Predict the 3D structure of the following.
Amino acid sequence: MNGKFPHDFLWGGAVAANQVEGAYLTDGKGLSTSDLQPQGIFGAITPRHEGDSGIKDLAIDFYHRYPQDIALFAEMGFKCLRTSIAWARIFPQGDEETPNEAGLAFYDRLFDEMAKYGIQPLITLSHYEMPYGLTQKYGGWGSRATIGFFERYARTVFERYKHKVKHWLTFNEINMSLHAPFTGVGLPADSDKSAIYQAIHHQLVASARAVKACHEIVPQGKIGNMLLGGILYPLSCKPEDLLETQRQNRDWLFFGDVQARGYYPAYMQRFFRENGIQVAITEEDRQTLRETIDFISFSYYMSGCATADPEQYETARGNILDMVPNPHLASSEWGWQIDPIGLRYLLNVLYDRYQKPLFIVENGLGAKDRVEADGSINDDYRINYLNDHLVQVAEAIDDGVEVMGYTSWGPIDLVSASKAEMSKRYGFIYVDRDDAGNGSLERRRKNSFYWYRDVIHSNGNSLKQKG
């Protein structure tokens, strides 16, 4: 690869508290919205009763086993680990005046363990969860009151960890609230568009307040947003398909536009007007939104196509989005289309649009791994997927795109977000647990563990250019 990756490139992996930690009511933690989704994002919202259980309640027990897991990440040479703080560990109901010290102390221990190995934390403030108490008492992000509760939470953790954490993200895949409102903004799935966009607006204002707080409290730090990078291509060269593709891409780019530019773009004003969407935006909100992020982070798993005539085509479902399949691409076991070149394209699109540093904070392949009789796990399909995507990252860097780092999704097997499965594995490290919750939780290195170790140690020079 001839040294295309910068010398300070942040190689690592990414996990989320609700998918790895377990310990779901340990040390004073309150119920989160994720705890009410035991079958995942697309499952029913299920009240919790004494004695019931779900696979995420224990997950992979990272809460107790993190020293072992951090040591394995260090063995691969991680420079960075992205994880999230479980908001309900810090403010169990969300509206307390004072935080839960036991929750704060857990993340002190976690960040100290990472520091032992020189692994930088990249911390998401809210990753697909919020205190359930805020949805019960206030209607989640539908209430302006939640802005203040989030700001209190953000300021609390900035003050506590300002000497330990220099890279922060506000909301994970903030644009996904359009498709999974309970997960994103704590609203019922059948909420109308005005209610959803009002809740999103409150979240955008809260994000800007967190950015301001971070700049005040952690002056040497950087804070970014996080988008689900659902890039779409026109299915054909018909002008109507091109316009429809632009419209659908703006559905998610809108969030980046507000967070990176500091105001609502004109095309959204037309969208609201033509769809009868009412969003209450105060002058104070407009001033607050001017506090913009330092960098753009995003997930990328697949691309898709858009057409002005979608009823003629089957759709391919990703984690959250439905897309028209690209006839030129292969798909994974879960029907996600595999498009490494799309990552280079997306990097260029985002850099051209925002002229801010970019951070790829999720990318990976979910697959059903098999443990061989000798204990090995031959996941060459994962190696090929990641290799081909990282080659395209190098090409984007050569194009002039400023890329801060790359954290692969799920460097250790975890509970999947969409359907709360263990069988959909992403990791370099195998965890012995199945979809029914059975297993020893033993950790085991896969072939990809050694491959990624070599990639990091060579700063990308071990990657293989295809063709």
In short: The first helix runs from residue 17 to 20. The chain is about 40% helix and 15% strand. The chain has a mean pLDDT of 95. The first strand starts at residue 10 and ends at 14.
